Amino acid sequence: MILMWLYGSSDEGNLEEFIGSNRSEMERLNGLLAAGGISNAEHARLLGEHEERLNNLRGDIELRRDKYNSFCDEVVARLPQNRTSS
Fold first, then answer.
1. What is the reported pLDDT for 17?
2. Whole-angstrom distance between the N-terminal and C-terminal Cα of the chain?
3. In this structure, are residues 64 and 6 in contact, taking their beta carbons and an 8 Å threshold?
4. Contact 54, 19 (CB under 8 A)
5. What are 7-39's pLDDT values in tens digits?
6. 3-state SS of the chain?
7. Which of 11, 14, 32, 61 allows an S-S link to 37, with CB 3.0 to 4.6 Å?
8. Residue 54: how many CB atoms within 10 A of its CB?
9. In angstroms, rounded to a whole number, what is the distance separating the alpha carbons of residues 23 and 2?
């Protein structure tokens, strides 16, 4: 399951989906603040977390891609060598 997540979340093709999801959550938080559902301090804290996530998105994608590729390289290295008999 983790390997599948690493693979899917390391694809830059999903970048817009990640950004959209994060922005939707930020809009939801704005609505909660306007409705009195959360305090200003909580709103600021949560928005800060989402902004940080957006700022680190490219680096996170590269990190997950590196982890996925490293895992695959290790698996291939452990496969039995193809030996032909003469």
1. 82
2. 42
3. yes
4. yes
5. 777 777 777 888 888 889 999 999 999 999 999
6. CHHHHHHHHCCHHHHHHHHHHHHHHHHHHHHHHHCCCCCHHHHHHHHHHHHHHHHCHHHHHHHHHHHHHHHHHHHHHHCCCCCCCC
7. 32
8. 14
9. 25
In the chain, domain spans? 2-7+24-77
Q: Is the pTM of this model over 0.70?
A: no
Instruction: For residue 40, name the pLDDT band (cuts at 50, 70, 90).
Output: very high
* Lookup: tokens for 39: 């305090």
